[in-house]
Every structure is written in structure tokens, then in C-alpha cells.
Amino acid sequence: MGSAGSNVCIVRVSVDDVERIIPHLGGRIQVVRAPCDEVVRFAAVLTLRSFERGTNHAKTPGGELLLRLAGTLQIKDAIDEVGVRKGENYLVFFGSEEECTEFLREFNLKELPPTECGEEEAKTFFENAALVEVL
Q1: Strand runs (DSSP E) across the chain, as ranges?
Q2: Minimal CA–CA distance to 68: which of 130, 11, 7?
Q3: 57: number of Cβ within 10 Å
Q4: Residue 21's domain is classified under what CATH number?
């Protein structure tokens, strides 16, 4: 279980029942597809900073995370690009580790070992995430 600061839990998980989990996403909870932990942590940090500075484009941290990770301002495009799918995803929970653990248990999400990106792959995602800041 990783983090992107206080009160942000990031876990690589295996999702079997996408339809069950979708209604619970968007507010403080998001499940996204990404190539590695670094990319998700970076997008989560940018999300937190955008709310602190008042530069967020989405109403919720979960929505902002999607925009940052996809590098777009259109939520529909972000969902298409990085939204939850069956299989390997990342759970990002803007809340306590205890709440995150309870969510994992409630939705029977299996925790997977973290993955790392190569430098070039990570760089592309970092640029996309930062691009939302200037759009």
C-alpha cells in the first residue's frame, strides 16, 4: 500500500466486478488504469495541490485524478482513457488508510505488488498530467 501524502492511499488491485464498483467512484475514491505506481502518485499529488490552490477543474478529487492522469479536461475522455476496467488497476482513496483497507475488503479487491515504469514511459505520463495545469 502506497501513498501520495497524508490521507491518500494508492494500491494496485485486481478488479473482477467493474459494475459493482463504478457507482462508488468519483468523490474520494477512484480506480484507474496506469502503467505504474509513479504515474498514479504523481497525478494524486497534482490533484491534492490543485484543490489546495483552487486550480482544480473537477468538483471532486476522484474526478480531478482522472483528468490529471489522462491529460485532458474532458471527463468522458478521461474515463475512456484511464477509467477502471476488469483486471489490473490502481485504487486511489483520498482518506485514511483504515478507510482504504475497509473499501478493499468490502469490494473484495485483491492487492497486487506495485509496478515501476521506465524513465521514458513515466516522463510521457508526467507531461500529460502536468499539461492539465496549463489548459
Answers
A1: 2-3, 8-15, 29-32, 87-94, 110-111
A2: 130
A3: 16
A4: 3.30.2380.10
Spatial separation of the C-alpha atoms in residues 42 and 122, rounded to whole Å = 10
114: left (phi over 0), alpha (psi -120 to 50) or beta: beta
Domain range spanning residue 120? 2-130
C-alpha cell recorded at residue 134: 496549463
Answering whether pTM is above 0.85, one says: yes
Three-state DSSP class for 85? coil
Q: Out of 79-83, 112-116, 125-129, which region has the weakest mean confidence (pLDDT)?
A: 125-129
Give which of 132, 27, 23, 36 is closest to 90, Cα–Cα. 36
Phi-psi category of residue 87: left, alpha or beta, with phi > 0 → left and psi -120 to 50 → alpha: left
Q: What angle do CA 132, 1, 65 make, to 5 degrees?
A: 15
Alpha-carbon gap, residue 93 to 75, rounded angstroms: 18
Judge whether 88 lies within some domain: yes
pLDDT at 113 over 60: yes
Q: Could you give the CA distance from residue 88 to residue 54 in angstroms, rounded to a whole number? A: 32
